[in-house]
Amino acid sequence: MHRISLIPGDGIGPEVSAAAQAVVAAAGAAVEWEVVEAGMAAGERGGHPLPPPVFESIARNKIVVKGPTQTPFGDAYPVQVGERIYPSVAIALRKELKLFVNVRPARNCPGIKSRFDHVDLVIFRENSEDLYIGQERMIDADTAEAVKIITRGASERVTRFAFDYMQRTGRRKLTAVHKSNVLKLTDGLFLKSAQAVAKEYPQFGFDARVVDALCMELVVKPESFDCLVLPNLYGDIVSDLAAGLVGGLGVAPGANIGSDCAMFEAVHGSAPDIAGRDLANPMAMILSVVMMLRYIGESAAADRIDAALAAVLTEGRAVTRDLGGVAGTRGMTQAIVEQIKA
């Protein structure tokens, strides 16, 4: 039995988390859940948006499924862990748990309209450095400065992770994304590091793209790419672009993985305006727990959920309104559960 920490989150988070739990149970996965609270609502109730019991649970279980948590813009709602302050719960968890790679699949699903066919990408975003280290300062009243850090170790680590993932899953080609024509030292180091690691995996194709050229190609012929590895900032942007190619963030799962811990989460927001109204699309959360099941070795259960979701999407009626159907969150979940059990 696998014990998994579950953070339901804010807004629609509890609804889509309940949907994910229901399909995992229907699929017969050997999973039990340890529910812990984090996010804005948890902070309002208990005084801290990311209290110690969350880290205690994850330390025991090593795997966490996280619903969307709410983060206001501006200076409000800092998340403090020890002496460190983070802008959001999600970033705090990624940093504190040392989750060095963000894995974002983007593929066409049956019944979901998109501008492109035959898209099947996996994006590997380096998660620990680049401009996202958050070292900024005001030089004077009119000038701000940010520090960009790229290291050989982190760049090689994420590239090696990508190749190892490809080896396990039958992928064929990796493209390193950079801007070394301008940022010759930082992005140049990322590119050189990726090229060096690629030599260890001669059975795979490997090439590189400047990030702006990549974005143009992705909206012209996305089917020509297989896997992408990118520094943190570009990975953040391009992974959302890729989600748009296949239907949007509502159908986009994600995982953040470290050396001894992994967190699986839907990448969309908490949508407080529709919370509690049975309107939320649970698909991204369900696909995220499918990724989790494959990670822990419950591939048969993951396959059952994948097949049931595809059947419900193909039929097209028992899906949420954003997908063109008439069902609510609970109705779509129940349709998937019935398909699993059929």
Architecture overview:
The chain is of the alpha/beta class. The protein has 2 domains: 199 residues, Isopropylmalate Dehydrogenase (3-Layer(aba) Sandwich), CATH 3.40.718.10; 131 residues, Isopropylmalate Dehydrogenase (3-Layer(aba) Sandwich). The protein has 11 helices and 14 strands. The strands form 3 sheets. The protein has a 10-stranded mixed beta sheet, sandwiched between helices. A two-stranded antiparallel ribbon has the order 4-5. The protein is globular.
Using brief descriptors, characterize the structure shown.
Isopropylmalate Dehydrogenase; alpha/beta; two-stranded antiparallel sheet; 342 residues; 11 helices; 20% strand
Name the CATH homologous superfamily of the largest domain: Isopropylmalate Dehydrogenase
Q: What is the highest CATH level, the class of the largest domain? A: Alpha Beta
Number of helices: 11
Integer-rounded radius of gyration: 20 Å
- Here the CATH topology of the largest domain equals Isopropylmalate Dehydrogenase
Number of domains: 2
Structural class: alpha/beta
Q: Count of DSSP E strands?
A: 14
Nearest-integer average pLDDT? 94
Question: Secondary structure elements and their pairing?
Answer:
Layout: E1 2-7, H1 13-26, E2 31-35, H2 40-46, H3 52-61, E3 63-66, E4 79-81, E5 84-86, H4 89-96, E6 101-107, E7 120-126, E8 136-140, E9 143-146, H5 152-169, E10 173-178, H6 186-198, E11 205-210, H7 211-218, E12 227-230, H8 232-245, E13 255-257, E14 262-265, H9 283-295, H10 299-315, H11 329-341
Parallel strand pairs: 1-2, 1-3, 3-14, 7-12, 10-11, 10-12
Antiparallel strand pairs: 4-5, 6-7, 6-13, 8-9, 13-14
Helix pairs in contact: 1-9, 1-11, 5-6, 9-10, 10-11
